[in-house]
Amino acid sequence: MQLGKLLGIIGIILISVFLLVAIRNYFSNSQITNNIVKEVDAGAKNNGEEQIVDLSVKNYNYYPNTINLKYNVPAKIVVDTNKVRGCLQSIVIPDFGVRKFVTAKDNIISFVPDKKGTFSFSCSMGMGFGKIVVS
Amino acid sequence: MSIINKEAECDNCEPEHKHHSSSKLIFKVEKSMIKTAFYNLIFLILIETIAYFGFFKNIPDFFSKYGYYLIFLVIAVVINSIAIWHIKAYRHVFSCTTGMMIGMTIGMSSGFSIGLIVGATNGMFIGSLAGIIVGIIVGSYAGNCCGIMGIMEGMMAGLMGGLMGAMTSVMTLNDNLAVFVPILMISVLAMIIGLIIMIYQEEISKKPDVHYHGFELLPFITVNFIITLGLTFLMVFGPRSFLFG
């Protein structure tokens, strides 16, 4: 019974403090913001001899999510292992025979996109995925 | 002391401590439970709305990132807390088997639902941690009605539920998680309704003397307020895994 009353008093105090801070924030417009970055598409850098794509993670998935490549030009996917962690490090591109677990020391996936079309890539567990568009 | 004397005595005492014969108690506690759940739901929705305008309004993509899951956080807190309210209203009448069932169901449902929701915004580590902590505390408290066996069952189910909830969330992030969460919450609600029916059929309707010992509304709402707001701020401003960029 004593605990119930104590909890009731604590509740009234906490709810009052919460309301006061919320009202003050609302009128002073000094709200807290977190550092969410909106998704922006990114493509491959092409130096004529090879195409280089930087692959990272954003919004629970690979970023960029769609990779545009040129047909028959060797491609290199450079994986940012500081962000690509866990099962996402095990990258599978079935149509180009790629299956690689990237590490900090070996973070480049090389292949030649010798087929035109849209192909999928994913992590080995299928939790992260994306598309490769070869044109 | 006879039941009649107890009732007469308790007509003058505080409303949360009454004795009744089970025939007079048909759905009395359950009706009171539904009323409490409704007040609790309205209160928590109001708190989340105030929190949005007071703290989260300037966060870009708030609804898709957090708001959607905060709705289910409120629902999860209401479902699990009201199940505890119902169990604690009958705290002295349970057998050990029923107590273990209670500990397991409440531990699993609370751990799983909190792990699932926090995991959807913060990832595996924080989601599991929140699910395990809530699941173990709530499960052991609910299972306490029949002693150490219920407590152990509640703790184990809380641990398992917390891990499973966060894991489910993280593994379905790119596979219709937004659709999966309401389906899972409906499943949790169905299990809790089943538990309430089980308690009534197996324990309450068979006993000649039932001890009714409900919670006061203010302390009950206070605990829900602290849990909901704590988890809300954890979901919005807490640390998150690499998956969330």
Structural topology:
The complex is a heterodimer of chains A (135) and B (245).
Chain A: H1 2-28, E1 45-46, E2 51-58, E3 61-63, E4 66-69, E5 75-79, E6 90-93, E7 98-101, E8 108-111, E9 117-123, E10 129-134
Parallel strand pairs in A: 2-5, 4-10
Antiparallel strand pairs in A: 1-2, 2-3, 5-8, 6-7, 6-9, 9-10
Chain B: H1 3-10, E1 18-21, H2 28-56, H3 62-89, H4 96-122, H5 124-143, H6 148-171, H7 177-204, E2 209-212, H8 217-237
Antiparallel strand pairs in B: 1-2
Would you mind describing this structure in some detail?
The complex is a heterodimer of chains A (135) and B (245). Chain A is built from 1 helix and 10 strands. Chain A is an alpha+beta fold and 135 residues long. Chain A has 2 domains: 1-33; 45-134, Immunoglobulin-like, CATH 2.60.40.420. In chain A, strands 1, 2, 3, 5 and 8 form a 5-stranded mixed sheet that branches. Chain A is elongated and about 75 Å long. Chain B is mainly alpha-helical. Chain B has a domain at 95-235. Helices cover 76% and strands 3% of the residues of chain B. Chain B has 8 helices and 2 strands, in the order αβααααααβα. Chain B has helices spanning 3-10, 28-56, 62-89, 96-122, 124-143, 148-171, 177-204, 217-237; strands at residues 18-21, 209-212. Chain B has a two-stranded antiparallel ribbon with strand order 1-2. Chain B is globular. The termini of chain B are far apart. Chains A and B meet through helix 1 of A and helix 2 and helix 8 of B.
